[in-house]
Amino acid sequence: MLNEEKKVKRRELTIAESLALGNLAGFTEVLIDQPLVTTKIRIQCKLPFTLKPSILYLGFIPNLLSMAPITSLQMASDTAFKQFLLRYCDELSVYLNALSAISAGIVVALLSCPQELIMTHQQESTKKPSGVIKNNQSVSFVSIAKNLWQEKGMRSFYAGYGATAGRDGIFSAGYLVFTPLVHYFLEKHHLLPSHFFSSGDLFSRVPLLGKHVKKQKGLCNELTDAISAGIIAGAASSFLSQPFDTIKTRQQQPSPTSISFRNVMRCLYQSDGARSFFKGGFSRGLRITSAITIISAVNQLGREYIIQENTTTRRIK
Question: Is the separation of the CB atoms in 312 and 54 below 8 Å?
Fold first, then answer.
């Protein structure tokens, strides 16, 4: 038909765009969550509560250098897997999207497993039986990495890789697949916050913020909806991945012999039943829920902005 508009098929992000968006999401997550991480550590170490920014943001750079590359690799790997799957089908189902996201998490575990293994060895090495800190030289990142390499070579760095891959796969699926599904469900059943109130109107009444928010009421509503979906998806993902994280930590503790996934599961269950798999789950749950909420919100809004800027229509004459 003449002068009929036909929308071009919505394109997916490129790998380069996914890398950039992942770095932005990782940076945003660390910027917001660093005080929560520091507070959690201070509580565990029985240190006094503080609101001093100089203390709350100690370790910001190392955390950023860890989280940003991992998040960008997750998003880029997910994009690469989707591009591969789209060669064989016109549209990806929920199951294929989940497969892509979980696969991205398994890839990321190749980086996170060695890093967390060394960190676990550092924590174990910093204390004598009496709790006294040892010489810092003996527990440095480099020295522990060298000792691990001398023991069994590259294989030493991948103790607990299966549990790490399971945990990271669930985390990736949490913000790449589960959060959009929760958002869709809430929208379909009119349960999103924007169906009940306008967060833009609320924030526009806040002093200093008002004049800026008035121009971005729609964005405020979108952000509130994204955060609500992220909290639900993040809490569920944290619960599902906690047993993998507990098993991973036990496998990565210094030991004369390697401990299999199955043996750790048996020991944990025999010690305190199913509760053993969820020890430390509350403090970790706060971080994971917050991380998935922030990353999924940045991911969703960033994708919409990038695709909107590049989506065009053509006329069929």
Answer: no
